[in-house]
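Intended use. Records such as the Rieske 2Fe-2S domain-containing protein entry shown here are meant for training and evaluating sequence-to-structure methods. They are not intended to support clinical decisions.
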Amino acid sequence: MAAVFLCRLEEIPDGASRGFDPCGAGRDTVLVVRQGDAVHGWRDACPHYGDTPMAWRKDAYLNADGTRIVCAAHGAQFDIATGICTLGPCLGQGLQRVELALTPDNNIYMPPPGGGRPT
């Protein structure tokens, strides 16, 4: 299976988030947060309750000041870089990381299962 192209780095404003449906599930299943030239990928599912989507509206995964990922259903807050819950009903639990690859020409890919580099 080939790597899945998500978007170009500049398509996510610095300090913002965006959801993706890389496997064609019919809803966003992956969320990406950009911090400068770094991108953090997470499964769009709160660990507090199964597959509950986290955004309160399309691409709205962050708190007002953009410092935490927030679950709209439970109010849980997660550290952007580590995915660890810092406030809410799943304190100490974490989001499931989605590995991302940022190419030298600023394309963001989700590598295929089992790793590998984008081609």
